[in-house]
Design goal:
- One of its GO terms (molecular function) is monooxygenase activity.
- The protein is α+β, with helices and mostly antiparallel strands.
- It contains 14 helices and 26 strands.
- It has helices at residues 13-24, 49-55, 61-67, 88-92, 106-119, 168-173, 248-252, 298-317, 327-352, 356-374, 377-387, 442-450, 462-466, 492-501, and strands at 2-9, 29-32, 46-47, 69-71, 73-78, 81-87, 101-103, 129-136, 139-145, 151-161, 179-194, 202-205, 212-216, 222-229, 256-272, 277-278, 281-283, 289-290, 401-404, 407-408, 417-418, 421-422, 433-437, 454-458, 473-477, 483-487.
- A hairpin with a 2-residue loop joins strand 21 (417-418) and strand 22.
- It is globular, with a radius of gyration of 24 Å.
- The two termini are 23 Å apart.
């Protein structure tokens, strides 16, 4: 019998990121997947700004930005004309170091993560299938089928189900997966093409013709097309070829396809598991939630699940926190999943709905309103923060407390850059830490030093005020860089209460 601390089932981006984060925090992991190889098709494309910010903790952000394609703007088309242009770089430039949509196909993404795991001595155990498992107060006892058909047993403290929408882990736990399936059939095609919509930006057609979105890929003239399959052709999508799908929307956008490199059809589901945790077993990524591709949120949400859970598992295993800390994973991530499914469902229904009223809204109302909305800086900022997941927060949840300025416990820390230096530089540390903007008291400095807690003090500036921070405000940051505690002035007693009431122990570098 092989033993490990965390057994990860599923080696997509969610499982791979969880393995990397846990390894960096000193946790022994084993990651298995029943497929013979990693993905070879570019399924998910978008890497959002918030994911890139968090990837700095693993030194992954620069590698992805350099290898992928930065999308500087989004465009909406109606009746063969561009109806709205939304510049992402100008909108997000004051909000994040990554003011763009990063296109980095999932197959390349997975390969990069696998290479990073290999570098630290961890390999994905391929053609290894979870058959069943049981758990008690001491841990998980799992039964695996190995590549040669034999069976093996594995003992672990915790089990992470990252095994997709048809999750074996979720089914074994008997957790429901309510939701539904959209009636539309979609196709996806990676192509080489030319035309005004093949300019490195995102283009979406929303008129009465078949819906189509054009995502740029790295390399001249390369793009991903996502469109609807309508009428009788949708009855047998498995037999469709690219030549069979409607060309109306492509012709209106003047997209001339010269070569098809990959083509597939699929249906879109929207579901959220009834629980994300049962005792020592957890659900992450598509095993916990699936939704429409609107906004490119799916893969990023699964990665967010992994990062949220990793530091909590590491803290409990290192006896730096009580096991009750793990309850916060389901509370925080399920709330976001529910909200995400609802919001993407609304967008998805708007751009794909049939009927006279739906067409009227898309072709008459949207072309008038969207350019006007896109011209308002505040509206552009709201859209960017929402899609990029910068606005994701854990307010009013067990690990979040207080406020200072416009920043609340549970918020993402606002990004501030001044004279070439930014307040995110210290966030590459995977640890609890404190930031103060203005002056820190001697008592606070002494308390942080005594407890081994990193303290960064930044000079007050107009940029701090503009970002919504409070002068002399104190912000306690979780290991995943979200604000845990916000106070308008440095308060040692508030720190003491925060850790004591939650049975947490601050740590700068988690050692085992």
């Amino acid at each position: 019998m092989r033993s490990t601390e965390v057994l990860i089932v599923g080696a997509g981006p969610t499982g791979l990121v969880l393995a990397l984060w846990l390894n960096k925090l000193g946790v022994a992991v084993r990651i298995v997947d029943k497929t013979p190889t990693s993905g070879t098709t570019s399924r998910a494309l978008a890497v959002q700004a918030r994911t890139l910010e968090l990837y700095r903790q693993l030194d992954l952000a620069d590698a992805i930005v350099n290898a992928g394609h930065q999308v500087p703007a989004a465009n909406l088309w109606v009746k063969g004309a561009q109806a709205a242009h939304i510049p992402l770089d100008a909108t997000g430039g004051a909000l994040t170091p990554y003011p763009f949509l990063e296109i980095f196909p999932q197959d390349q993404h997975e390969q990069l993560l696998i290479e990073r795991l290999h570098a630290v001595g961890i390999s994905v155990e391929r053609q290894t299938e979870l058959l069943d498992f049981n758990q008690d107060e001491h841990g998980i006892h799992a039964r695996l089928r190995l590549p040669d058909g034999s069976e093996s047993e594995c003992q672990a403290h915790y089990l992470a189900g990252c095994d997709g929408a048809r999750s074996t882990v979720r089914k074994a736990l008997g957790i429901g997966f309510p939701g539904g399936t959209y009636q539309q059939v979609f196709y996806v095609a990676d192509v080489e093409a030319q035309g005004p919509a093949i300019n490195g930006e995102l283009h979406v057609d929303i008129d009465e013709a078949d819906f189509i979105a054009v995502f740029p890929l790295a390399g001249k003239g390369r793009a991903r097309l996502i469109g609807t399959v309508r009428d009788e052709r949708a009855e047998h999508p498995e037999s469709l070829r690219f030549e069979d799908v409607s060309q109306v929307a492509m012709e209106r956008m003047k997209v001339e396809v010269t070569q098809v490199n990959w083509f597939s059809t699929y249906r879109v589901h929207h579901r959220v598991a009834q629980q994300f945790r049962r005792r020592r077993a957890f659900l992450l990524g598509d095993a916990a939630h699936v939704h429409s591709p609107a906004g490119g949120q799916g893969m990023n949400t699964g990665i967010g699940d992994a990062i949220n859970l990793a530091w909590k598992l590491a803290s409990v295993l290192a006896e730096k926190a009580s096991p009750e800390l793990l309850d916060s994973y389901e509370i925080e991530r399920m709330a976001f999943a529910d909200k995400l499914v609802a919001s993407t469902d609304q967008v998805f229904s708007f751009v794909t709905a049939d009927g006279r009223l739906a067409r009227l809204l898309r072709t008459r109302l949207a072309p008038v309103l969207l350019p006007r909305v896109a011209a308002i800086a505040a509206a552009r900022g709201f859209m960017f923060r929402t899609v990029s997941q910068l606005s994701l927060n854990y307010r009013l949840m067990p690990l979040s407390f207080g406020d200072a300025g416009t920043v609340h416990g549970g918020d993402r820390l606002p990004w501030v850059v001044e004279n070439g230096h930014d307040n995110f530089s210290g966030l590459q540390r995977l640890c609890w830490q404190v930031q103060v903007y203005g002056a820190a008291s001697e008592a606070l400095s002494a308390w942080c030093a005594r407890h081994g807690l990193a303290l960064d003090v930044f000079p007050w500036s107009p940029a701090c005020e503009q970002a919504g921070l409070a002068r002399n405000g104190m912000y306690l940051l979780r290991p995943d860089t979200y604000v845990a505690l916000a106070q308008s002035s440095p308060d040692v007693a508030a720190l003491e209460r925060y850790f004591a009431t939650r049975a947490l122990h601050p740590w700068t570098v988690l050692t085992r």
